[in-house]
């Protein structure tokens, strides 16, 4: 299952089938269908994307409304009809996607291929296996399908900045999370020993759940320490959690600040040398023309 | 409905009526009234502003106190009298504003014009339409009227810095919010499926409400997971929410830090070239005099 | 009531009585007492400070333990004796302070003079006016007396850094707090209208209390929205509060970061010119020697 | 009890026994055992480390599962057998460690020596002293043993960065914590006086516990103010706590940001002069070769 992003290559004639990860058909109705479904540089392609987003959102609204008992009682029948219409449309779309690519298996095993399947399967399964009815709400994962279209939007640069900040901090975050895990495991066990099942700390997992509730400052209050010693330990944990909260914030703040303040330099794509300023036009080291500064840089 | 800020132009004689968005009358009693109500460079104008702030705050105190059952029982009659006095005064003020400007319709449709109307309407409506009595507390929106006077204060620069930091980060914030929305929708549905109505997760909107409660670390505790799987998912969500909390903080911190540290430069208003230092007096590129450095810069 | 910090001038002979805000006696037993009580450069003075900190902390422990019903039942008599011993010792100390300074009235009206009085008064008042017994716990304010000694410690520089960061941000903080106040007032009123007394929102102040609970992500859960509309508004508020939380953090982070990264420069005390580097020894503008770089800079 | 980190010196022949804090045996089976247990540069040594991590994690899983009543009822017998197996293996390992070092007492008193003992003691104690059965969960501290192996991992640099950020801020953190302690003590006492035992504020420690719950925005909701004055004070505290939360975050953010942005310089190990850039190869002041730039720098 690989994340294969369809490139937005222009539909030029010729042997560029291998440019698209799922394989673009060379000609005929499959070629036309491909351009409508997988590309968005034609009027029909754009319309297809917009109708699809509309259908996904409408189907989500139906799923959400259907979960409300009073609305289900009043419009349950209508919702069933709508749900089957959406499922049939998404099934048709899934088949069309399979048919119009050169490598259907590769599409079916891609992340979006799996999500496309998951978007229609629950409705069929709920009919065949009555016990799986609860799973029908997995349909909410249809939301993920919207990412396919979002991916192509202008916001990708911002997503990229967020992702890069997280990626650059991945080791700090791993260290931080492992530290938090060790603390909540030890603290949860300690509270299980101190407070015991009588005060709601039924076992170590419950104690760890409570420790996470407390360290993250969520504090539901469904389980609370009742003994003096338990409250003292809880106080220490809250102060500790409060201080620890500063660490992820500090990590991400420092990343964002560094990205904003760091003097931005460019790489030379010819010789690989770094450190060229944003206003340089040619590489200082090899004289090759530097790539143009893009808007999102 | 446009945000038209009355400029504080000096009341010089002549055809500067068009300088004020609502139109300043040329002479006569309307001109005098205009200077008192819309301008604050005369003794009467300043007094008018101060009395108005006093009336607004007093009327808010009455609204708040009147909502307390015991105080309402004791002073309900007095509060009704006071409320009607405030409403009549604000009505008179609204009429005076309408009368003394050249373009009353433009004023009536401006943001502050609408707020001025909303400040008096509820009291009248509560009499005419008894069912709308609950709406009477919309009067608390009178608070917004204070902004009219705050607008002219020295704190505008700080408001500006906050606003600019938010504006500069608007794309990052949008991406962040859309990410949070997707997570709470999926997590809320998941918890609805796992915990079900028996544990308080009555429908998907309730699940989403709970997910927001948890992700933001508010944790009311009115709905809490009871099953082991539910608690495990909740633990993941809390840690996720904790980490996610770092993102908006990091975005705003980076903005503020960049604003503080970035070497401040000025634009040349003549040729538009940028990068002049705070101590430069003439444009390096065209020789024109640079605008003076203002205190708030 | 002015904050008069006793300077730590060396006890040189001569007419430096006016150097100490409360007036240092010239000679005799009052001079000796003054050096022990108000100064800490002698062995006796240091011992006095240490004994005083010990007494204050011991008296606090008694106050705290005495509030616990079971301990009060067992040791109530001992605590009463201890409390009176502490009160008598602090009374003696207060009288000694009054006696040994040249300007006792000035000391009595200073911040620390008032705290010294407040430290002993509750015990006497609890005897004279039985109804004021609850006030006896005001004794916990004795804790503030420790600041007198802390003030002289090496941590003053860090206190200064915190204070400066807050002071530099005071306008941003004021704008932020006024914004929060307006939001919680409007939101609290809105929830009072939507949920009403039936769901625990008894009046507008209760609504505002709930709004603050929610915006700050404390979320006690003693009052929670029950209606769908109320929960929707609460969700918006939580996300808003979450984002707003980023603002004070961002303000303080930016201050701290700027203090750390800003190239540190010094003022010339002779001509007032700024911008001298930390390694400069003489003023570039007037040639005067620059003040030495202090450790805390 | 000193933190003695075993160095990873190569097992070269000769008198380097004194290089290892616990003393490496010169030859024979003890030498072989030492290399397996304390070093990880041989196949057997690496295998030993991996098996040990596996055993520690498996024993933790048993401790956690055994605390769940239903699982304990079903597999209690199996868990007892497993627990004794783990305890015996860890005991053997502890004895082996004692036997194969030159200075067993030094190892026994080191931090890891004590943890190794604490990892096996509870199981034996639970047999000998039935009343200490609760203490058996101290076994969860076995988790700390994993640090011994983590210590040698590549993540040490990140741990170091976190630690350095905290260490550099230690004075600011101390000042901050002392400020928080004073505020929660005074506020807790105040709420005890205002709300009293009738509303759950049984004594001053309970009040302080509540104040910490509120200031840290955890807000369990097991104890909440019921009076108007109490709610007003609580509102002030929440806003104060909200603002105060910004301080530790700001401190850590500034540290992280400074570490990222500060132009990195190196010390000359020969003459001690500072400020050499990352690309300098020789000291500007004494001409000595600078130490190579390490990966983690």
Automatic annotation (TrEMBL), chains A, B, C, D:
Gene3D superfamilies noted in UniProt: 1.10.287.70, Voltage-gated potassium channels. Chain C
Localization in the cell: Membrane
Domain of life per record: Bacteria
Main subcellular location: membrane
Membrane-spanning intervals of the chain: 51-75, 81-99, 111-136, 142-161, 173-194, 232-256
Keyword Ribonucleoprotein annotated: no
Bilayer disposition of the protein: Multi-pass membrane protein
Keywords annotated in UniProt: Ion channel, Ion transport, Membrane, Potassium, Potassium channel, Potassium transport, Transmembrane, Transmembrane helix, Transport, Voltage-gated channel
Residue ranges of every copy of the Ion transport domain listed in the record: 47-260
Keyword Transport: yes
One Pfam family cited in the UniProt record for this chain: Ion_trans
Protein name, entry field: Ion transporter
Species the sequence originates in: Piscinibacter gummiphilus
């Amino acid at each position: 299952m690989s994340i294969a992003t369809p490139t937005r290559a222009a539909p030029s004639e010729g042997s560029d089938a291998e440019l698209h990860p799922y394989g673009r058909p060379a000609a005929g109705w499959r070629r036309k269908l491909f351009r409508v479904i997988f590309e968005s540089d034609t009027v029909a392609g754009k319309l297809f994307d917009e109708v699809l987003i509309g259908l996904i959102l409408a189907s989500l609204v139906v799923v959400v409304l259907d979960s409300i008992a009073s609305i289900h009682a009043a419009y349950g029948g209508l919702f069933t009809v709508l749900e089957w219409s959406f499922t049939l449309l998404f099934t048709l779309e899934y088949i069309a996607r399979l048919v119009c690519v050169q490598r259907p298996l590769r599409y079916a095993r891609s992340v979006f291929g799996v999500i496309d399947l998951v978007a229609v399967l629950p409705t069929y399964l709920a009919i065949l296996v009555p016990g799986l009815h609860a799973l029908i709400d997995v349909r909410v994962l249809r939301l993920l399908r919207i990412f396919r279209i979002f991916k192509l939007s202008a916001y990708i640069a911002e997503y990229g900045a967020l992702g890069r900040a997280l990626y650059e901090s991945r080791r700090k975050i791993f260290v931080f999370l492992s530290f938090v895990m060790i603390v909540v495991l030890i603290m949860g066990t300690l509270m299980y020993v101190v407070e015991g099942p009588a005060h709601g700390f039924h076992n170590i997992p419950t104690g760890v759940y409570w420790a996470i509730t407390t360290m993250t400052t969520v504090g539901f209050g469904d389980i609370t320490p009742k003994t003096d010693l338990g409250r003292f330990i809880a106080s220490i944990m809250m102060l500790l959690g409060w201080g620890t909260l500063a660490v992820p914030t500090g990590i991400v703040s420092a990343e964002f600040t560094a990205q904003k303040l760091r003097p931005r330099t460019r790489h030379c794509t010819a010789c690989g040398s770094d450190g060229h300023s944003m206003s340089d036009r040619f590489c200082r080291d090899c004289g090759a023309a530097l790539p143009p500064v893009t808007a999102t840089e």
